[in-house]
Amino acid sequence: MSVRVQPVDEVKEPVEKEKVALNDPQPKLIAGGVAVSSILFVYLMAIQALAQPVLLLLGLGLGYTLFHARFGFTSAFRKVMAVGNGQAMRSHMLMLAVAVTLFAPILAFGLSFFGQDVSGYVSPVGVSLFVGAFMFGIGMQLGGGCASGTLYAVGGGRSVMFITLFFFIVGSTIGAAHLPFWTEELPAFEPVSLATSTGLGYGGAWILSLAIFGLVALITMAIEKKKRPPKMAPVPTTSGWKRLLRGSWPLFAAAIVLAVLNALTLMARGSPWGVTSAFALWGSKVAMFFGVDVSSWGYWQGANAEVLQSSIFADSTTVLNFGVILGAFLASAAGGLFRFTRITIKNLMASVIGGLMLGYGARLAFGCNIGAYFGGIASFSLHGYIWGVLALAGTFVALYLRPLFGLSVPKSKDSFC
């Protein structure tokens, strides 16, 4: 009996006691992925400080975990808004709970591996954030993935996500060019940290954060009890120790791993995991190659000026992104799941529009689902919570737009395929 392999951003947590057999591993692809990762690691060791090779390894772990758990943000938001299934959202709450527990002492005491200063993602609250997060919420539902989802879907071979990634970069570059208008000409409040701006301290902010996460989890369970949404469909998996390398991982296990890896990233480079600042860098370097004076943009002034003039391999976010793609590639090959998928005119159009909205929105909102939502909330920043609410609002709007591009919207009678 043949097994239908679903697109990587649509495959979700397996239903208990149901299993779909994995394909055989793809040894040539695994060997290729290991070779590329090894060459990049050695290159980074030769030209960069120790932090960059360490970040590559952390990126590999992040990509491997994302793919093996099919840990999504786009689908999690869509399922809870469309039919009320909050299982994936509860995994987000667990991930954030573990993250704040680890981030609190790291930020409070400045703990780091290489002696650098440590700071979280705490950004202003204003028009830029509201517009950007709402735009990102729509974009990720049209583009088929969030920032991390785009990277791991590319690593898994989902062809249309290469289109999304390209226009994600374009949108992020345009957003970098326009950012001074949004941040300097429009109203905004100063950054608010639940730990340092409220008098709660990291201990009080940690307790408040856990209370918020618990409340969100309870709300999703109450919604499920009322709506009785369908369960998530099974995904290819195996059992025993082999599941560590080849099979699907439970969402809650992946949530813990991702939180730990994010905390290690904070200690390794002095800031949490991020994704989209590298997209602005890549796009700006290409524009600079074609004669555009990007160095005159406000975005590339001050501390960012040196980043623009340096090699992309000196950029820690770039190294993390390469690691995520390679980690997802290795995970997909280990499960025998790597394959390119079909592109249609409609999903190509959705990827173009969604990618542009993702990139532009991420710049306006001071980050994406990783830098603003995951990293911001883990850093006790108010803007991270606001980002999540506005991205959910964008998701709700996108539910009415997806059918225009032939994209599915889950119904109460459907299984999550």
UniProtKB/TrEMBL annotation:
Pfam families: Sulf_transp (PF04143)
Keywords: Cell inner membrane, Cell membrane, Membrane, Transmembrane, Transmembrane helix, Transport
Segment forming the signal sequence: none
An annotated GO cellular component: plasma membrane
Transmembrane domains' residue ranges: 29-48, 54-73, 94-115, 127-153, 160-182, 202-223, 244-264, 319-340, 352-374, 380-401
Repeat is among the record's keywords: no
Membrane topology summary: Multi-pass membrane protein
Subcellular location: Cell inner membrane
Family, similarity comment: Belongs to the TsuA/YedE (TC 9.B.102) family.
Protein name: Uncharacterized protein
